[in-house]
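Handoff note, outgoing to incoming analyst
You'll be picking up this chain. Sequence as last confirmed:
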Amino acid sequence: MQGCLVSIDAMGCQQEIANQITEQKGDYLLAVKNNQPALFEVLEDTFKLQERKDVALSEELDFGHGRIENRTCFISSDLQHVDTLKWKDAKTLIKIVPERYNKTKQIQEEPMIRYYISSLEADAKMFNTFIRQQLGHREQIALALGCDNGRGCFSKKS
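Most recent structure output, in case you need it:
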């Protein structure tokens, strides 16, 4: 696992998994949701309390799937409120804010803010690109399995 970046969705955001990855000399990028309420709150508060000038950011514009999306990635190395004994080798907190405009429906969609924790030190552009690629692969797998972007299954027409 040495030199690899292991990316896991919120279900795999577990301290034991993070520790196992870093013990094998890999890096982790873990999605954080309410299954880790204390960590989720720390991430929310960290980005709320830091001024925009104190956080590195990267923006990417994407056109596809009938929408226009501008993704802003904020990163912070401020781990003062993260329990680093539990989250071994944590170095970066990440916040992704997608702004989407649905061209078909001609509406601005509500942003779904996502949070991540990582043992990797990298810039916001790298995290923004990697997370987008990861989500794209997940959508491709879901569609191949007959699921609508992983949010629910539909029957395939023959």
